[in-house]
Write a sequence for this structure.
């Protein structure tokens, strides 16, 4: 008898016109102490399985067939009260985003003690002691002080540890971890995964690890189940599935994972299910105003750039405290290159992007674009010309498009703003742009919410290209996207650079991606640029200890190597 | 934290000074009170004498400073109409309005939050839909009409509650209260509902939409995933998170309950400052109008200061 057994599970969401099948006859078995990976793209039904086990399916979703059994007894047919007694008690769950899964208005102690008292028959004092022990166990230093702090006083990784402590309140038998490290930095991700692995072993807990990240699967899980559009396509021991995938979909999914070791010209895209993989970037090149700049004169010259943010305001100006986000950073970006910036969150990568683009005012230093100072925002004439030349692509394609504007209006806005074209010429340009990023002109009549993440990011790219810029700032352009979609977006960006001669500033925390996108890479730490080298040199011969450490944290994909090429 | 409070208090003082300027400017720009006070048969000498006695012959700035200084001491001058100190008149009238505002404010907040939570968690239930529909009526009918309808139903037809006045009041050393007698309490019910109905529906709709928003948050899902009882999820975790915007609106609305009590007081012949203000306008009794304006703005500013401090008490993220 297994710890958790899912047989033939089907979950349906009835809609007005038809029934949407989120999970179709899925089977899954978890043993005590085992970490079972559940992998697939967004929409594959991974999280729905997690919610079905917890009895937390969003209405009107329901289990129409199959059975979920915990230690041999069925739990899928239990009523709400019986399920509630199981939840957090015998089955716990960890959510993706530690920033939002803790209630911001209660201290960590209040949330822990409340959960402990709900499930265990102990006195308030014992609950208090247990809360302290749990924090200690998940590796939070100085638990006595930390207990009385609020979630916002913890860093992302520490918050996820608190979330894990909450999940452990009553010695659960099964933990469902739904993308537990997706929102975290690589270094922190490794620590959290280690913790989960340790706990699973130590307490003989069965863990279902839901993720879209093949690196996490390869590093952490014992067995893995691959899902595609609600169906389980393959299941088996991790090494076997990753090293020698049988199903066509698993093969193409694994091939799409960027390899840290070998640079390749293009990112392999998932073609399974007849997906579009080619875009007409060459078409844009035909009427693109090319400027043959001298490749040895920097396009962007950043000198001694600094930025600090107000941390605590005081009535006496001298007593206010500041946080230095960017500290005396200098570098050049040459025409036609892809310049990468890597670093953990909070290292100042994004702030640099915002300083160059003029979204933040610089506190010190200057930025030159083609030899002209552009960091002085009061020079309106220079700014107007400069802003047409640079455009930005943001991380989150969901919040970077105005939901109340139609897609064609969104793309036409920069054209109108810079008065580049007028009348029907705008319409033609917008239609062309949409066509070129593979959306089709009719996409212009829809609103952003009608598109998926990858499609939205392509709309963002079309918007960025609308003014025919020379310089594109990409701030984590793919970290909110699935691996398969990531390849698509990265290939488009690569084409833009190759065919249009665009210069890119590419900010990312994903080292394998950076390796394949960029010609030179800078490493940021605590607002300072600690290293700047040509990409291959940086990966082969890192100069600083910090870079070495970052490189060592890249997911171990040895097993993937053989199958990928 | 301390610097935050000091800054807020300084801002409040600035606001009050500006309102004071507006209130004071009325003396100069809204006609000559001398004309009103002295009849047709007057000599230039009478005019000059009165002008000097009222201090109206001095420069604008001097008059303003004097006005502020005496206002600080609670002296708003003498009513043109009644010939008594304005502060004294206000002190007689204010308790009636404040008690009415307090009762209707508590009614609006209490009923608004309870109904808001109810309509949010039973979003598709029949009762919740009914409440939402009826609340639309509450928003769209003007206050005086609701007052008249309530009087017609409960006073004229059913004869349960009095239709005007405060009933019997008890004098507690300068503060007259209707809380201590049955007739005083009965007299409070209809005007309090009339005055608070609009605010109640507004708060209810706000709490409802905030609750629906908060119930979608991850921490609510996580609270459920930890097996916490539904009661704790809804009233502990969710409700507290809806409070910051609700307090903002409730604070502003409480201010307007006091300020706009005028209509309700007129309908119910409630002897409060609103009624006083209406009479003052009819008589161009500028000292009374100015004092009323100052009183209302002190309350608005005071309530807003309180709201800002409540934010900090509720949301630890604002404390740093």
């Amino acid at each position: 008898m297994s710890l958790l057994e899912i047989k033939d599970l089907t979950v349906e969401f009835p809609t007005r016109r038809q029934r949407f099948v989120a999970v179709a006859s899925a089977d899954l078995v978890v043993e005590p102490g085992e970490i079972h990976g559940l992998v697939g793209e967004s929409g594959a039904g991974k999280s729905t399985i997690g919610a079905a086990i917890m009895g937390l399916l969003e209405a009107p979703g329901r289990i129409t067939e199959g059975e979920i059994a915990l230690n041999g007894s069925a739990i899928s047919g239990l009523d709400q009260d019986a399920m509630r007694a199981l939840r957090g008690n015998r089955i716990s769950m960890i959510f993706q985003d530690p920033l939002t899964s803790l209630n911001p208005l209660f201290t960590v102690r209040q949330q822990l003690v409340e959960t402990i008292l709900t499930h265990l028959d102990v006195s308030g004092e014992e609950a208090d002691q247990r809360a302290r022990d749990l924090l200690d166990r998940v590796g939070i230093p100085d638990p006595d002080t930390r207990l009385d702090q609020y979630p916002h006083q913890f860093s992302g990784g520490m918050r996820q540890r608190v979330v894990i402590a909450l999940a452990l309140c009553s010695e659960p038998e099964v933990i469902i971890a739904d993308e537990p490290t997706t929102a975290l930095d690589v270094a922190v991700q490794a620590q959290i995964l280690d913790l989960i692995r340790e706990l699973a072993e130590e307490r003989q807990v069965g863990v279902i690890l839901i993720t879209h990240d093949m690196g996490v699967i390869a590093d952490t899980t014992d067995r893995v189940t691959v899902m595609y559009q609600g169906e389980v396509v393959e299941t088996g021991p991790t090494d076997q599935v990753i090293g020698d995938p049988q199903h066509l979909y698993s093969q193409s999914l694994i091939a799409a994972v960027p390899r840290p070791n070998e640079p390749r010209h293009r990112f392999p895209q998932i073609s399974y299910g007849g997906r579009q993989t080619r875009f007409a970037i060459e078409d844009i090149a035909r009427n693109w105003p090319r400027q043959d700049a001298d490749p040895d004169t920097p396009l962007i010259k950043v000198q001694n750039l600094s930025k600090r943010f107000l941390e605590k305001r005081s009535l006496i100006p001298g007593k206010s405290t500041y946080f230095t986000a960017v500290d005396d950073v200098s570098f050049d970006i040459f025409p036609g290159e892809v310049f990468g910036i890597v670093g953990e969150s909070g290292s100042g990568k994004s702030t640099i992007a915002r300083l160059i683009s003029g979204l933040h005012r610089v506190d010190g230093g200057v930025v030159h674009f083609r030899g002209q100072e552009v960091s002085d925002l009061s020079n309106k004439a220079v700014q107007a010309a400069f802003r047409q030349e640079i455009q930005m692509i943001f991380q989150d394609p969901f919040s970077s498009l105005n939901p109340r504007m139609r897609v064609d209006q969104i793309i036409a806005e920069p054209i109108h703003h810079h008065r580049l074209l007028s009348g029907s010429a705008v319409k033609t340009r917008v239609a062309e742009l949409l066509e070129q990023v593979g959306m089709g002109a009719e996409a212009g009549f829809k609103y952003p919410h009608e598109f998926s993440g990858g499609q939205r990011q392509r709309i963002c790219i079309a918007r960025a290209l609308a003014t025919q810029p020379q310089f594109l700032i990409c701030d984590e352009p793919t970290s909110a996207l699935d691996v398969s979609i990531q390849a698509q977006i990265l290939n488009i960006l690569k084409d833009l650079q190759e065919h249009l001669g665009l210069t890119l500033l590419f900010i990312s925390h994903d080292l394998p991606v950076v390796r394949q996108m960029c010609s030179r890479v800078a490493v940021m730490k605590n607002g300072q640029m600690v290293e700047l080298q040509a990409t291959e040199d940086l990966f082969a011969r890192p100069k600083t200890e910090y870079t070495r450490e970052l490189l060592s944290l890249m997911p171990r994909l040895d097993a993937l190597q053989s199958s990928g090429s | 934290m301390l610097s935050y409070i000091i800054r807020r208090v300084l801002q409040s003082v600035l606001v009050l000074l500006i309102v004071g300027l507006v209130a004071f400017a009325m003396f100069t720009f809204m006609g000559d009170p001398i004309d009103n006070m002295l009849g047709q048969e007057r000599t230039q000498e009478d005019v000059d004498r009165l002008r000097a006695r009222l201090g109206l012959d001095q420069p604008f700035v001097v008059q303003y400073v004097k006005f502020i200084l005496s206002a600080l001491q609670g002296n708003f001058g003498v009513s043109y109409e009644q010939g008594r100190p304005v502060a004294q008149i206000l002190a007689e009238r204010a308790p009636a309005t404040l008690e009415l505002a307090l009762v209707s404010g508590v009614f609006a907040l209490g009923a608004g939050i309870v109904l808001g939570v109810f309509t949010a968690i039973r979003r598709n239930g029949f009762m919740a839909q009914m409440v939402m529909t009826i609340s639309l009526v509450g928003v769209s009918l003007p206050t005086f009409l609701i007052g008249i309808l309530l009087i017609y139903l409960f006073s004229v037809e059913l004869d349960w509650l009095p239709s005007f006045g405060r009933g019997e009041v008890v004098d507690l050393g300068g503060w007259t209260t209707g809380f201590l007698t049955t007739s005083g309490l009965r007299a409070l019910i209809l005007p309090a509902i009339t005055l608070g109905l609009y605010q109640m529906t507004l708060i209810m709709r706000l709490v409802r939409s905030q609750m629906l928003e908060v119930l979608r948050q991850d921490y609510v899902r996580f609270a459920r995933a930890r097996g916490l009882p539904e009661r704790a999820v809804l009233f502990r975790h969710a409700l507290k998170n809806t409070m910051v915007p609700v307090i903002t609106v409730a604070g502003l609305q409480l201010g307007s309950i006091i300020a706009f009590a005028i209509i309700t007081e007129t309908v119910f012949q409630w002897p409060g400052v609103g009624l006083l203000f209406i009479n003052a306008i009819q008589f161009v009794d500028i000292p009374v109008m100015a004092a009323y304006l100052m009183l209302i703005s002190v309350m608005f500013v005071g309530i807003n200061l309180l709201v800002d401090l409540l934010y900090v008490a509720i949301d630890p993220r604002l404390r740093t």
